Amino acid sequence: MTEAKTIVEDAPSYLEVVEAPRWTCSLGGAYITTTAVYDAVPILHSGAGCGIAQLLGVYYAAGENAAGGQGGTSTPCSCLIEKHVIFGGEDKLRKLIDSTLQMMEGDLYVVISGCVPALIGDDIEAVVKEFKGKGDIIFVNSAGFKGNTFDGYEDFFGAVIDQLLEPRKQEKKVVNILGVVPFQHLFWKGDLNTVKELLAKLGIKANILFTQFDGVKKLKEIPEAELNIVLSTWNGHKTAKKLKETFDQDYISFPSVPIGPKQTSEFLRAVAKKLEIPAIEVEALIAEEERRAYRWVEYLTDAIIIGMPRPYAAFIGDTNTIIGITKFLANEAGYLPEIIQITDEPPEESRDLIIRELTDGIESVLKPEIIFEKDTFRIRENLRNRSFQVMLATSLEKWPAAKEFAVSHLSIAFPTYDRVIVEKTYAGYRGGTGLLEDLLSKYVGPL
Amino acid sequence: MQESEVHLVNEKIDLSENTCPNREERANGINLYYGKASDLVKDARAGKLKQCDRKFQQTSGCTLNFYLTVRVNTIRDASIIYHAPVGCSCPSLGYREMFQHIPASLGAPDNYDLHWMTTSMNEKDMVYGSTDKLKAAIKEAERRYSPKAIFILTSCASGIIGEDIEGAVNEVQPDTRATIVPIHCEGIRSRLVQTGYDAFWHAILKYLVKEPKKKQKDLVNVASMLSYTWQDRLEIKRLLGRMGLRVNYVPEFASVEQFEQLSEAAVTAPLCPTYTDYLSRGLEQEYGVPYFMYPSPMGFANTDGWLREIAKHTGKEKEAEIVIAEEHKKWDPKLKAIKEEFSKLKPNGEKVEILGALGQGRLLAQVPYFDELGVKSSAAMCQDYDNLILEELEKVLETVGDFNILVNTFQAAEQAHINRRLDPDMTLTCPFQGSSYKRLKGVTRVHALRGDPNLWAQQSAYAGAVAYGNFLLQGFKSTSLQRTMKAKTKDGYRSWYYEQENPIFFIDNDEAVST
């Protein structure tokens, strides 16, 4: 081999060429979202590896979750090969849908089509239409090259709204919860159920769509809500807007799932105000919950103050998770956010709000440096020459934290292979102490 | 048809091509069969094996994912570029954790970082092509990581739009210090995941293996898989070390230099014959490195044979006999004790039945090993079948007698079906959330993964045969998990399916047979 010329140190010319971005493709997003609706059966119209790739790269990366009875290797798939590229994959899809209806019980079948059918021009809609009257079947055109997990989540709801939902009478004090993307937001199961329970205390019926045994019925009930609550600065907004256009449903958004007492009280006040629930009821609930929550925080304060008081902290993860967790640790536990790296590439129009939340929204003399970065290589570079003592990040940062930076590390965002997360949540009044338990457990020891 | 006319296997490897032929073409591979193993080999001999389609099929793995991604990922001083939409590389998100938890006291190197990038192919790329982006990615990988090799893994999308990968590589290679190694693992190219291995070895042989500077008479090439744990590696290294030999393990956790030196070894030895096949043949054809395919070091007799084969090629026959004798002295009583315990599990001298196996290699090695344990495998599952194992499967049949075989690549419904119908005392599975683990009798895993540094998890050679025997016995000590889950959760398939004789119910007979 000839000796290479000197390589010029130049910036990459393609911003999407990166190391290990922390998401999957839109097929993956639509697929994992489908499996979060119990008794919906995903049908992949794609290459044979597209489903199992999500098992290893999303389900396991979301706190080592298995994929459930319709996910992983249980998921029907057309397993397209070259001959389909030449002759088309429609016949194969037709046979797959037909046999799946015979084989697998389900209340809704969701055909999710990937790169191959998009490139060869299969008419998915026409094939799906042939099964009209044989059960609820919808299709999501989510070619992997069209977008990422977050797009796939919105694509799924786009298909549900267009193909499954019908207008229904709106009910008072019924709300839908949007903006929490299954698996991609690690604590989605616990988060959603906590929000549901919190709102129930104010007499509000929250339709959280996922992890409900009558999941497809819950999807069909979406138009009954008088309000959509979006727990994200940007995820779920597209769906909420579409619901507004289609069913004239109002929506409000909150920057994240509320983590710990302060955010939770703020959340309850905002929802109550919107739904015209008397302040006196809300304040009574908040007083009772906060009293309990902070009495329990007292158990933690020795460990916080003696163990590692007011540490500089690095935060790395998706927008939703980072806003909630950073604000809790900064505003209720005295942590000093030094650097925050947002990894999920939120759209430009949401970035001002995100930055405001993480600067104006933080009680700290120092304001953190906020970087929007999806490239795992640059994320690591950005951590160098700083003084943080603790890192709240993903399992991608686990070994750099241990071997390069020698700091405590807790995985709180996707991907997380080094924790098992099923019901765990940091949401609500008890979530803050839960977070501190996990975080302090990384460094406490005998005094 | 005369036997001589039947195409069984392509013997020759053509490195002037960009990639290997598919397993379907190279060795008449299939991934759909249910019946007697004796009928399978008969049909194979006669050239009558047919690859049919399934109407009902489940996601299972392609030539890229997941076996190939997770292996190439572990090469220490290389980097990977996935020329693919972003979902194809997500199984690699665990790359920074691979092997990291193995203590230095067990021989893990202090410093290494694994790297991969994706070109995140998008809609624009589908229209205009994206070889420029691939070239930029190669440059960027070189700038960032100074790797010794850059592997390019292709995808369905890059294949369908007809990306000129070799053109791009040839253009940038002169300005790149790293050796660029394009691997054609477009998922659509083949039904058989093993085509991905061949494609990988083809690229290794074509681009990375160097002309031998010197022959290393004490070096043994061993292609290891993710089912070989850290302790398996250490055990094999220890045994060969006592014969005065060194192991060159590729590709798992190897350095690029280890690939370059493959041509200098005395012999290429298999852990899994069909996984190693293409590499072994290529190294012999191009550099005269001898190889053998059987046996693999699983079970006592197989390990004896494996060490003797290696010894034959390295002139270490005497040393091998000493090692074999010593190991037997140490481990024979332990194997005997395990055998006794198995014999007591069922009344009246009835043998315990285990349903297992995964790849072809495991099928061949495991069935005789279970025989050593006094355990019966009246049926086996295999991800695919091809003629590379034909002769050896015939030998296995001669030794242990006939058994049923279900050839399928992770078809969860078929696996649940055969488990329910045959109802073995123990089933070996990696569920990947198939439901065959929900049952009243025994369930345990097929194998641990490479990173496991626990002695308890090893399976290779004598120590591993004893460890795995104990592991299987342990599996009989509690059924609470699978019984509870069976009782308390729903089964995903309708009951009529389980009433059918054949697990492959939805065979597509309308579809023209194709390869």
Please tell me about this protein's structure.
The complex is a heterodimer of chains A (447) and B (515). By secondary structure, chain A is of the alpha/beta class. Chain A has three domains: 26-163, 3-Layer(aba) Sandwich (Rossmann fold); 171-292, Nitrogenase molybdenum iron protein domain (Rossmann fold, 3-Layer(aba) Sandwich); 300-440, Rossmann fold, CATH 3.40.50. Chain A has 18 helices and 13 strands. Chain A has a five-stranded parallel sheet with strand order 11-10-9-12-13, sandwiched between helices. In chain A, helix 1 crosses helix 7 (149-163). Chain A is globular. Chain B has a domain at 67-189: Nitrogenase molybdenum iron protein domain (Rossmann fold), CATH 3.40.50. Chain B is an alpha/beta fold. Chain B has a four-stranded parallel sheet. In chain B, strands 11-10-14-15 form a four-stranded parallel sheet, covered by helices on one side. In chain B, strands 1-13-12 form a three-stranded mixed sheet, sandwiched between helices. Chain B is globular. In chain B, helix 13 (317-345) packs parallel to helix 17 (461-475). Chain B has 19 helices and 16 strands. In chain B, 41% of the residues lie in helices and 12% in strands. At the A-B interface, strand 1, helix 1, helix 2, helix 3 and helix 4 of A face strand 4, helix 4, helix 5 and helix 6 of B. Strand 1 (18-19) of chain A pairs antiparallel with strand 4 of chain B, so a sheet runs across the interface.
